[in-house]
Amino acid sequence: ESFSIHVPASSANLGPGFDSVGLAINRYLTVYVEPSKTWQTRFLGTELNMLNNEDENLITKAAHFTADQYGKTLPPCRLEVQSNFPLSKGLGSSATAIVAGVEIANILLDLQLSKKTKALLASRLEKHPDNVIPAIYGGLTISYFNGDELETVHVPDVAVELIVAIPDHELYTKQARESLPNLLPFNKAVEASAISNVLVASLIKNNWKKAAAMMNRDLFHEPFRSKWVPFYDELKTTAVSLGAYGAAISGSGPSIVCFTPHQKAASITEQLSLLFPQYRFETVFPDRKGVHVE
Ligand code: HSE
């Protein structure tokens, strides 16, 4: 039997929610799976074409990893992979591949994994939970992961619209993580945590204005990464002047995500496109469903 898996992209961090908070968006990685004599993966479309030369891909790696956990072997399949969002732009593309792989094993082996178990397996592979968890649950998620244990709070309904601003260059998460400090002095850590606490509380109360104010105060990663994001300050200030609540670097960048009130995103997107030709702007919405199979 063949089937297809749809996994939403996501925007991680939301500023001070570093390595914890993530929001699923309505852009998807789609994998068509059909039984075959040997393992084959074909990446369709221009965004994914460059992956065709890789021997091992994250999707099959995650599928085999999941099967191994249960002492099972996967039957060979032919995969066709399609994506309607770009790779290495801070939109959680690797997380979508991992979650797709876990789900492929779940279905092929009839493992009947709970969301929580999928979340744990996917977090172990990705090492940080803030893209894989929203990709599995949909909506907004706040997670704690220490490399082994996972705690997640799921907020399914978020009343916000988003604009993703995507610059031309790619940025690899590994490189973007190397720019972060190893240590924060105790007083800075306390301040950074308080900022993050207020961010999360505001998000849960759907107070996006206050959440955005906290995004501007992030001490965990944006100060170290904004140098890779062209027109970082100008873009944020302009988005706010046009009616957005605020903005943050999406994941590890280089994209920026702007948060706007209901029915505002499309017109702000249009105006930003004229002002910042260096970027591609897209209006997106929260995904509420998470990974699903058809
Ligand atoms: N929290 C991760 C980081 C997300 O900022 O490095 C990467 O997508």
Automatic annotation (TrEMBL):
Residue span(s) of domain GHMP kinase C-terminal: 200-273
Reaction(s) this enzyme catalyzes, per UniProt: L-homoserine + ATP = O-phospho-L-homoserine + ADP + H(+)
Gene Ontology terms for molecular function: homoserine kinase activity
First-listed, main subcellular location of the protein, grouped into a coarse class: cytoplasm
Entry annotated with the keyword Transcription: no
Subcellular location: Cytoplasm
Pathway annotation from the record: Amino-acid biosynthesis; L-threonine biosynthesis; L-threonine from L-aspartate: step 4/5
Top class in the EC scheme: transferase
Positions annotated to bind ATP: P86, L87, S88, K89, G90, L91, G92, S93, S94, A95, T96
EC number: 2.7.1.39
Keyword Nucleotide-binding in record: yes
Keywords in alphabetical order: Amino-acid biosynthesis, ATP-binding, Cytoplasm, Kinase, Nucleotide-binding, Threonine biosynthesis, Transferase
Pfam families, per the entry: GHMP_kinases_C (PF08544), GHMP_kinases_N (PF00288)
NCBIfam families the record matches: thrB (TIGR00191)
HAMAP family: Homoser_kinase (MF_00384)
Stated family: Belongs to the GHMP kinase family. Homoserine kinase subfamily.
Full protein name: Homoserine kinase
Organismal lineage: Bacteria, Bacillati, Bacillota, Bacilli, Bacillales
Gene: thrB
